[in-house]
Specification:
Blueprint: H1 22-25, H2 38-45, H3 55-58, H4 66-74, H5 78-88, H6 92-98, H7 110-113, H8 121-134, E1 150-154, H9 158-169, E2 173-177, H10 186-189, H11 198-210, E3 214-216, H12 227-233, E4 236-239, E5 245-246, E6 259-261, H13 262-274, H14 279-282, E7 292-296, H15 300-311, E8 316-320, H16 332-340, E9 344-346, E10 349-356, E11 360-373, E12 379-392, E13 395-398, E14 402-403, H17 407-410, E15 438-440, H18 443-446, H19 451-484
Parallel strand pairs: 1-2, 1-4, 2-3, 4-15, 6-13, 7-8, 7-13, 8-9
Antiparallel strand pairs: 5-14, 10-11, 11-12
Helix pairs in contact: 2-4, 2-8, 4-5, 5-8, 6-8, 9-19, 13-15, 15-16
EC number: 1.4.1.13
Domain FAD/NAD(P)-binding: 151-458
Pfam family, one: Fer4_20
Length: 485
């Protein structure tokens, strides 16, 4: 055991890459922490216990080979570590940055249970692939022999991009249709740069362009082509639009100017980061500078909004959430980062009304208490009578989550079946929708979820699409043979 490079968790403490001081990092939208040095990455990877049943892998939606690439990192075999990491994930450096590791791999690390602090898996994952990009180890997509069939992908988010890459590698012609002017979906326009700098996304997209994947930007299905027209163009279709319809608040005054949707706010901020002209930001409505900001919600989108407002120079930023810290859906690490940066959390509180004149002036709220658990196991918040209070607000951002849009109506495809939640109904064996040759994956099937689950769904549906297209080609060949005979 003297030469054993692993199992160092007793003598080596947990150490994340150092974060910049809060005062420095709120001055820009750069990522708040650098990546590990080579020595530090190997040292932290060496803490892995190499357990026989790796709970980190089993709780990762992609089932990444985490203990194996941790060991390779410790041994200095970084290229092999990258290749192993890349074997199960199309975007390992993105997952390393934005996955809620505290709820997935790191939250289920065996040494975390023993009180030694989890292995810093996400930070090592980021280090491995960033190093691979710098050293030229990230190879072009290896495109297989041309199959003479094409795939249309609707949506350029993580699920769509994953399918585009995997189907192109199998030799299919791939066209991606997206409503935005840049690919990436929420990776590009929803997640702020301090969590995911945009060149990290852009280099992944460029790799797909270099592989011959054709991107149709500013393309709306239903406006520029119906779903049936796209089906005529391609041998198979994937719908991977995500869910973008914001959940509403029902309260007096909710329609007042100055009360905005989270995604509108975040998209405007990210567009300014690209240098775009954004009138709604430039003229003030979506700019938090000098304003008293109230964000309503407790998920990761709410955390993105409060931390963005701080960087825009808000006079104050408060996050209003109806449950307590222990029951919030967002990452605890993000909450801690927000508090360090000056965000005030108003726990166990919910809005009752919004007041003001020509624009919103305040939020009238009420204290909540947690009652009995609901069907999901979370304790249900209930109003505490007589506990009303008011918060000054010049800008209110609604961040209560997202639901599916009406795709059958938007796409001109009323026969496209949906569930009672509005998500697309699929056969879970084939991952096909109610329409022949039309597949679906990601949030539009499972509801608002994580990027890592979208990648997993994309990986799974690519296998199903490949099987479908091979069978379709065989039927065509058989029919041609019968005609020739």
């Amino acid at each position: 055991m003297a030469n054993e490079p692993m199992l160092k968790f007793v003598g080596v403490g947990q150490a994340f890459p150092p974060k910049r001081e809060a005062d420095a990092r709120i001055a820009d939208f750069g990522e708040i922490a650098a990546r590990y040095s080579d020595d530090k990455a190997g040292e932290q990877a060496s803490r892995c216990s190499q357990c026989g049943v790796p709970y980190c892998s089993t709780h990762c939606p992609l089932h990444n080979h985490i203990p194996d690439w941790l060991r390779l990192t410790t041994e200095g075999r970084l290229r092999e570590a990258y290749e192993l990491s890349n074997a199960t994930s199309t975007m390992p450096e993105i997952c390393g940055r934005i996955c809620p590791q505290d709820r997935l791999c790191e939250g289920n690390c065996v040494i975390e249970f023993s009180g030694h602090g989890a292995v810093t898996i996400g930070s090592v994952e980021k280090y491995i692939t960033d190093t691979a990009w710098e050293r030229g180890w990230v190879e072009p997509v290896q495109v297989g022999p041309a199959r003479g069939q094409s795939v249309g992908v609707i949506g350029a988010g993580p699920a769509g991009l994953t399918v585009a890459e995997l189907m192109r590698a199998r030799g299919y012609d791939v066209h991606v249709y997206d409503r935005h002017d840049r690919a990436g979906g929420l990776l590009t326009y929803g997640i702020p740069g301090f969590k995911l700098e945009k060149p990290v996304v852009q280099r992944r997209v460029q790799r797909l362009i270099d592989a011959g994947i054709v991107f149709h930007q500013d393309f709306e299905v239903g406006r520029d082509a119906t779903l049936d027209e796209l089906r005529d163009r391609h041998d198979a279709i994937l719908i991977a639009t995500g869910v973008y319809k914001p959940r509403a608040i029902k309260a007096p005054g909710v329609g007042a100017p100055g009360i905005v949707e989270a995604l509108d706010y975040l998209t405007a901020s990210n567009r300014k980061g690209f240098g775009d002209a954004v009138p709604a930001f430039d003229e003030g409505p979506l700019d938090a500078k000098g304003k008293n900001v109230v964000v309503i919600g407790g998920g990761d989108t709410a955390m993105d909004c409060v931390r963005t407002a701080i960087r825009q120079g808000a006079a104050s930023v408060k996050c209003l959430y109806r449950r307590d810290r222990a029951n919030m859906p967002g990452s605890q690490r993000e909450t801690k980062n927000a508090e360090e940066e000056g965000v005030e959390f108003v726990w166990l509180s919910a809005p009752e009304a919004f007041d003001g004149g020509e624009t919103v002036g305040g939020v009238r709220a009420i204290r909540m208490r947690l009652g009995e658990p609901d069907m999901s196991g979370r304790r249900t918040p209930e109003p505490d009578p007589g506990s009303e209070f008011r918060i000054e607000a010049d800008l209110v951002i609604k961040a209560l989550g997202f639901d599916p849009e009406d795709l059958p109506g938007m796409f001109g495809a009323p026969e496209l079946s949906v569930t009672r939640w509005g998500t697309l109904r699929v056969d879970h064996k084939t991952m096909q929708t109610s329409l022949e040759g039309v597949f679906a994956a990601g949030d539009i099937v499972r509801g608002a979820s994580l990027v890592v689950w979208a990648i997993r769904d994309g990986r799974d549906v690519a296998v199903r699409m490949h099987a479908y297209l091979k069978a379709k080609a065989e039927r065509v060949e058989l029919a041609a043979g019968k005609v020739a005979a």
